Known about the structure:
- The structure holds three protein chains of three kinds.
- Chain A is an alpha/beta fold.
- Chain A has two domains: 54-166 and 288-345, D-Maltodextrin-Binding Protein, domain 2; 167-287 and 361-380, D-Maltodextrin-Binding Protein, domain 2, CATH 3.40.190.10.
- In chain A, 37% of the residues lie in helices and 15% in strands.
- Chain A contains 13 helices and ten strands.
- In chain A, strands 1, 2, 3, 4, 5, 6, 7, 8, 9 and 10 form a ten-stranded mixed β-sheet that branches.
- In chain A, strand 1, helix 2 (71-79) and strand 2 form a beta-alpha-beta unit.
- In chain A, helix 6 (202-212) crosses helix 7 and helix 7 (222-237) packs parallel to helix 13.
- The N and C termini of chain A lie far apart (50 Å).
- Chain B is mainly alpha-helical.
- Chain B has a single domain, classed as MetI-like fold (Orthogonal Bundle).
- Chain B is built from 14 helices and two strands; from the N terminus they run αββααααααααααααα.
- Chain B has a two-stranded antiparallel sheet.
- Chain C is mainly α.
- Chain C folds into two domains: 1-66 and 240-284, no CATH class; 68-238, MetI-like fold (Orthogonal Bundle).
- Chain C is 74% helix and 0% strand.
- Chain C contains eleven helices and no strands.
- Chain C starts with a helix and ends in an 11-residue tail after the last helix.
- The A-C interface holds A 9-10, 13-14, 16-17, 29, 33-34, 56, 58, 60-62, 66, 84-88, 90, 98, 101-102, 105, 107, 109-111, 246-248, 251, 254-255, 269-270, 272 and C 42-44, 46, 48-50, 66, 68, 104-105, 107-108, 111-112, 129-130, 133-134, 136, 139, 217-218, 221-222, 224, 228, 231-237.
Amino acid sequence: MEPGKNKTERATAFVAMLVAAAVLALGLAACGGTTGGGNTGEKTTAEGGEVTGDLTISNWPGYIVPGKDGTIAQFEDASGVNVKYIEDVNDNEVFFNKLQPQLEEGDSGGRSIMVLTGWMAKQMYDLGYLQEINHADLPTVFENMVPSLLDASYDPGRKFSVPWQSGMTGIWVDTAKAPEIKSVNDLFDPKYKGKVTMLLELRDTVALVMQAEGVDPEEATNEEWMKAVDKVKGAVESGQIRRFTGNDYTEELTAGNIVAAIGWSGDASIIENPNAEWRMPTEGCVLWSDNMVIPVGAPNTPAALGWMEYVYDPKVAAELAEYITYLSPVEGLEQIFAKTNPKMAKDPLVIPDEEFQKNCSSQVSPPDAEAVNKAWQEVVTG
Amino acid sequence: MSLRQRSVPYWLLAPGLLWLILFFVVPMYFMGELALRSGSVTTGFTLTWEWSNFGDSLSGHTEQILRSVFYAGTATLLALLIAYPLAYAIAFRAKRFQLLLLFAVVAPFFTTYLIRTIAWKTILSDSSPVVSVLQTLQLVPQDGRVLATSGAVIAGLTYNFLPFMILPLYANLERLDGRLIEAAKDLYSSSTQAFLRVTLPLTMPGIVAGVLLTFIPAFGDYVNAQLLGGTGQAMVGNVIQSLYLSQRAYPEAAALSFLMMALILAVVTIYIRFAGTGAFMGDEEEAK
Amino acid sequence: MSAPARAWAWLRHNALLIYAGLAVTYMLIPIFVIAIFSFGDTPKDKLTYALGNGFTFEYWETMFSLPELNEALFTSLRLAFFSTLIATAIGTAMAIALVRHKFRGRHVSNLLIVIPMATPEVVIGASLLSMFIYYSFSLGFTTLLIAHVMFSISFVVVVVRSRLIGFDRKLEEAAADLYASPFTTFRTVTLPLLAPGILAAGLLAFALSIDDFVISNFNSGTTVTFPLYVYGVSLRGIPVQVNALATLLFLVAVIAAGLVVWQQRRAEKMAAVRPETEAKPVTA
């Protein structure tokens, strides 16, 4: 073959392919594209009714008592519902992104319940991806809910969310190596360089950093958020912060790679380090809740509501709390624990204690979440 | 040639081409269109022919791009150095254990990428005996660490993509006629010369395939950087993942992805030209 | 020769094999670690990398006691099996067409095969997802299968092609001279000689599928594959059974290989017994 002919043939062939592909794609794309913008139709309310059939729940990992005698098995026995329980929520943003195209179309991918942190629940609700909940369908829930949770900044009056567990973000400290760490500001101390991790979630980390500087995250302006982001950025550049983590800070603590981490109050059961201890920062923690929500297009909403009712039974709630070791949203557990687990009855990490939490702020989003998130992502993604 | 004979290649190609067009080209079109949009998830993405997305994503992430080239390039080189002798040994020196060794090489793949990498995380953790040994050998500073450094990420990449280098090398070496090497040894004064002048050139197609199959996925990887790296080791894959999944900045993510593809294609083209072989592209005559 | 000289000569002669042994050991280091930790007792049955709690077989005995884990594993195996079958068949056909035949559009085809390999997995995953959603194609096993076959085809083509190049056509010409039809030649000469390459390609496709995380993450819907399951539990505690399973999978692969080798040796022994009737198997 003559070389010249080769080249022209290749070029023509390439262009031809592109054109053909474009034509093919355009031809197939007869209908309009889905490109975001949210559902702005009317909000639907989840229907009540008989509790039977199949139920699919999406939750965070480690948030339920597993196994043959676990919560799911007991619920299935008690109600006759067949439950598919998927632990695919590892990160609010990531989960949202995976689901967003479907939710846009009113399709929940088969899920009837999802468990999301408060701010993400609000975000989804504002976009029209969630159904509202009728309080009349959930008598046990609203009777047993801890009073401080009956109202939430992200969902006044609990129109669409029911708390699953609450938690506090504070500092985990390896008391054998750095016993004097008591405030988030201590994490910036150069003597701990490279031995500190912080959470990827900006509503935890940046909020705590701000709080340590005396700024209230619930009232902070964008500039104040950005200033805190910059402070963290400086720490990244100096090598102060080893990594940004999700739940995996627990591994770092176990392996002894770090001396302190910003982390969550309920992770004691995962950390195999006898010296590790969760500390309430002197300036206070960040208080958050993970909530059950019902997405649009959820099949079998009566079963979903039945599940919510079931887990607000104090006996069930006590079992969950004992295993998960996060703050339970259900009242009256002290009496149960007094008999079965006296130590836990007084544990402020499981039984909400107002005095203990007095300096804590509720987890909120920055006023301009997108801009702050963008700046934050630049910082945490190396 | 009869019509039947002439149409044979088309029949052979059709299923593959169809699959690739439907499930690769068409989605790419959608992604390309996305790269030209602007907006956000809450306001909707509209097509505004935002060509600046490409420039912006490039300039905003040059550091990670260069770093990825460096990490992937180093890992590929190391993999080649490790894999070639191994593939050679399996092909020529291990007649009886050939399949067994091949399986031993590929079997780690059956234990899941994540588990393997997490295992390395344990092996290289600050308090592990391995790190202590490395510190004694002065390869790592006394108060230094292995995890959350570039070295750990490169080591992870090399390890995880080693089979991608070994298999093509082996497939190519295996069909090399041993007598050619013997003849070369008869003619050249040493095994080294025989190797350099006969074996190496003949196995070029395998090397080309192995290098490409290793470099490209390593370049776009983010798991190793995420698990074994710390702040300052993020690769392009991490950025794209963040843009898509954590920031929902789809147009920027799509634009960056396109740029990545273009960059890789450029590297591939230059490399093939340099390695001087149209053999990779399948022209038999040129290979001979 | 003196003893040291002989030792040195032995070393030189076997250097390559010794090196191979070391290299394979290096590749297996994480497997050892995984295996070791599958025997460590832990309080909450979750994996921790602290070995202080003692030795136990518990996790091996209860390996299949986690329903989500079993389901995920089974899904992954099924997926890998079908995807390997389809991708290897399609890919081998393409490789043969590309190397052996002259036709128009060969350069376009080459391009179409190379480009997917040049695309980051995140991109392939996300773009496929947007297309599936666009056409309201429900996510699940089918979408996963489509995605897995798609990214495997290119690799199969490359590996098989690498073997086809420089393939000695004379053997096929000899068959043709003996009046074999093209199809028979293909079946009895080409295919067996091509077999190691196809096998390598198939292995690669299987490994790619069973190991895939990124693309699966985007296109799986509520279907959970083994890597997705591991990722999910890795953040809050991996059940130790996962390590046991991973080790088991590895052992199964090695035993399978061992069986094949043993079978081969038996075949060779039989051949040695009947020299007149048995032709030596053609090896490279």
